[in-house]
């Protein structure tokens, strides 16, 4: 139980810092992913519009409270589930599994579990991130968005896009943890004292974020479109993206996503490792 308490504390700190770093980039990503009326000609055009018309807090950080809370839950579920699953697989009865297999399985299980937490959080986030584009009064809030969603389509509507989120997170969890753990392991081998350094966490985390987003971005694009429009299904979203922008439409916003993925995920893993190291010393 002490280990779990440490994991919860470290994951909460990592989630908060990571979300503060990535959220402005994420806002631009969602707007580009759902920009099927070609309101924005480029990533820079979207950034300029957001800053000029909405500012920092009401534009780039619009709706941050929901994903901030979600980031704490997300990282708690991710790291605790990953850690406990890995420990289970690492028992003698499962010793025939390679270390990489344990990491991939544990990451997939962790991602699967966290998808059920992320779906409603990201649905509210996505709606708020594009709300200013259709409502100049700018009176949308997290609670109002949740309330309107439930009133219009019931509680289950908060989990619209669950299938896309599940696919993204279950596969992404394996990629995320796998990239991080393998990178740290290889860097440790290269160290003359065979030790992991603080910068190993930063580099491993940055690479993990880039690999996760690069491999699963098309799924994330479909999820974003499905979540901002209650009347559209996954198959309809895919057809809409292809019809309006072709295959390239699945990758709109990829550039800025990869730009934020490295520092945000580096911050997450670095913070987690440093807090865990500090707590275990106490």
UniProtKB/TrEMBL annotation:
Coiled coil: none annotated. It is found in: Mitochondrion membrane. Keywords: Membrane, Mitochondrion, Repeat, Transmembrane, Transmembrane helix, Transport. It holds the Pfam family Mito_carr. One of its GO terms (cellular component) is mitochondrial membrane. It comes from the Eukaryota. GO terms for molecular function: L-ornithine transmembrane transporter activity. One of its GO terms (biological process) is mitochondrial L-ornithine transmembrane transport. Solcar repeats lie at residues 2-88, 98-186, 196-278. It is a multi-pass membrane protein. Belongs to the mitochondrial carrier (TC 2.A.29) family. This is Mitochondrial carrier. The lineage of its organism: Eukaryota, Fungi, Dikarya, Ascomycota, Saccharomycotina.
């Amino acid at each position: 139980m002490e280990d779990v308490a440490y994991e919860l504390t470290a994951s909460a700190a990592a989630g908060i810092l990571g979300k503060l770093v990535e959220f402005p980039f994420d806002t631009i990503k969602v707007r580009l992913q759902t920009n099927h009326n070609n309101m924005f000609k480029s990533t820079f055009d979207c950034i300029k519009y957001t800053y000029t018309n909405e500012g920092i807090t009401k534009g780039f950080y619009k709706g941050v409270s929901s994903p901030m809370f979600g980031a704490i839950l997300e990282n708690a579920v991710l790291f605790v589930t990953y850690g406990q699953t890995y420990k289970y697989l690492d028992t003698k009865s499962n010793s025939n599994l390679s270390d990489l297999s344990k990491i991939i399985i544990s990451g997939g299980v962790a991602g699967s579990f966290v998808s059920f937490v992320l779906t409603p959080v990201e649905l509210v986030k996505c709606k708020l991130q594009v709300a200013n584009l259709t409502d100049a009064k700018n009176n949308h809030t997290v609670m109002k968005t949740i309330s309107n969603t439930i009133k219009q389509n019931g509680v289950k509507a908060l989990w619209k896009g669950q299938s896309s989120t599940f696919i993204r997170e279950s596969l992404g969890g394996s990629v995320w943890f796998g990239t991080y753990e393998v990178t740290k392991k290889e860097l440790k081998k290269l160290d003359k004292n065979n030790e992991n350094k603080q910068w190993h966490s930063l580099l491993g985390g940055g690479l993990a974020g880039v690999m996760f987003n690069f491999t699963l971005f098309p799924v994330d694009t479909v999820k974003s479109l499905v979540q901002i429009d209650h009347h559209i299904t996954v198959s309809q979203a895919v057809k809409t993206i292809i019809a309006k922008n072709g295959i390239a439409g699945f990758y709109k916003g990829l550039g800025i996503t990869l730009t934020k993925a490295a520092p945000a995920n580096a911050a997450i893993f670095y913070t987690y490792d440093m807090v865990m190291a500090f707590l275990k010393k106490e």
